[in-house]
Amino acid sequence: MCIFDGATISTTGQAMTSLARYCAVALLLGATTADAKTGDALPTRSFQRFGTSKLRHGSRILCLAYSPDGLTLAAGGGNDPVRLWNPKTGALIHEIKEPWVHAMAFSDSGTTVLFGGYQKVIKRWNLELNRETARLEGHKATVKAIAIRPDPIATLAVSGSQDGAIYLWQLDNNRKAGEFSGHTDEVNALIYFASGDSELIVSAGSDRTIIVWDTKTYQPQFKLDAGCAVHALALSADGKTLYSAGDDHLIRRWDLTGRKQTGVFKGHEGIIVSLFLHGDTLVSGALDKTIRFWDAKTTEQKKSLPRAQGDCDALALTKAGDFLATAGLNNTIRILDAKTGNETFGAGSINSGLIGLTLSADSQRLAGITAEGRVLVWSPKAGTLQRQWDSKQSGDFVLAFGPDKKTLATASTTVRLWDTDAGTQLAELPIKAGDSVVSLAFSSDGNTLALGLYNSQIELWDVKKKTIVGSFKYPSLLHAIAWSPDGKKLATAGGSKIFIWDPQTLALIRSFDVKEGPPAPTPLVASLAFGPDSKLLAAGGWDARIRIYNITSKNPADIKEHRLCEGHHNAIFSVAFSPDGRSLISGSFDKTARLWEAFSGKQIGEYKGHIGEVRGVAFARDGRSFFTASADCTALQWDVPGLAGKAKLSELTLGVQELENAWVTLSTEETARGHLAMWQCIASAKQAVPLLTKKLEPALLDPDRVKKLFKDLDSGHYPTRIAAMADLMKYKRWMEGRYDAALADPPSLEYKRRIETLKEKLNAENSLSLVQERLRVRRIMLMCEQAGGPEAIDALQKLAERGPEEEIRDEAKASLQRLGKR
Q: What mean pLDDT do residues 256-285 have?
């Protein structure tokens, strides 16, 4: 037995040997492997990663902490687990499912780490046992600061929360030992000092107060006016000198014995969020994109290291003072040599979450853009980064390739056109001050660029002349825009309506309502994509659903959901049809991509592997792989067939019995199983195409002959009636609609009885439904288009001429047109 992506195939007897062997290969290829370039583990059915997963998170990193030996780095924050990393190799040691962590601390022994945050519970993790050993419960607000008493057995810990509460914890029994009351706003920083007979706790927060506490009475020894909201503290080894920093961009030095300020460190130009003291060197991190080193005695600045804007939330220094870890909004941990400032791991990789993805029409260039505005262009074939540059913008970004396969448009507060071969800017299209682009799309000829603006304005730009050739106010909030491949329709959406416009006249062709899903505070439609025939339009929603519409009807009342795709658990920010229009890929904030059968609306497969929101998807030209981009700072290429790596389908030779089994499986409503059988047939096209297309003959209809057969059912000649019934039975389910039409106005009672008899035979045991017959024909059409060759083309031509339904005939014609362009 072979089980693959939810599909089970029985492989028994000698006749199934080749298929069993092929399934075993498929299972092996589907297992987690390693990327050849980076050594990163690859998820099931992915065969190439762009960027690295090492030291990367899927959302904002709010806190970092080194173990005392510097061999483990803990990171937490955002909608992500706490991750324990090896900072030397970038390898993930362990994941702990605890999101929105704001504070963490290691014990002196390095065997215990405490962490807490939005969940209001502090968890105790034992690194030797690799498991949670206790929960410290009692806080009524987000935990913002944690400190552990510096002793080998970690007997006490202190924590502070957003409501100003500070609790002392007895770690030998994991119970609350006491409470310190005095702050009137959130506690952002804590220090637990113990040396000989001296013991004190220092706290500071948003109430502009520093408090030094007596650990025995839980009362303040004294308070200091910090001068601003404090976010960070550092204490000298003898416990006599304190350093504080916060909102006013200054670091203050305090003599705790004299209870007075003794110095100010000036230089930062942003809020200071981190402080560390190592010997006589004070290290500070601020939102001004710098890490600064100071002489703790003289207050003079020794040096300054640059950091990205997204690196500024968290900073950690090894106990030895030799390495720094920095992280934040960009979801990336960077390890810096404290002496040189050089990045020691991951330099040159994607250092910020990807928020957009686009693929050139020939699949030769893959472009992504990061949250910090960095544009990256890869060669998918070589798997290498070809170009990267700064887009010179800030904010949320969108991007799209032009039809010429090398011109790239990026947009935010300005639109810029780039030559991806040279990495140079070709043009700039100015946007009105205070506005920004939320979506953009090229016309099929590449001459016009459509922009959807935040203020609900739509603009059409002549790319060559760099002028606006059309503009109009959109009637509601705008979030998505798509241009049809035939160039005749422009779709826009954002609220509960989808509008279809004529891009030449800017006239509204039609509009229709999107069915409301569960209540959401945001616009319903988040993404749009046209099918290659320009007839189908997919709308990805904030309600985690995809709605596929057939928009060919001119009457808005006739435009209904063609298919509804359900399975995601969060907003769908990106959708894309396969080149043949028979599949659809979607990317969601639930961190997954899903592949759908467009004509049934059923899920073919779920692709898990990203640890951040999937913000972009794109299908390869051959339809055998697709790409995803994520907030986890990586892009992945995935194998659609599930039968071979690198989208190269290995040849397979199926026997007659195996093909007979495949013929049956192609009709299944178990979508994953049906597609696995289909791709096996594509891999064995030499054997599959002639046999399976021959078995399609009952689906080929001659309308005049069918009309005569129905007329013969009322013949006065008995053999003629019997022969007509026998011939109509050969067409199986394809006659179901015609039988119903005939029963609506039968010429005689006997005629009616004969039709009823034929209908009863349709429902015989093991007979297929009309839905199943349609599925099989469409999967075989997909097989023929993928396989190509004279016999596949002949089968498609027959379906185009004599297919049982108009939609199938149209789809076969479209397949032939695409094959003609190869």
A: 97
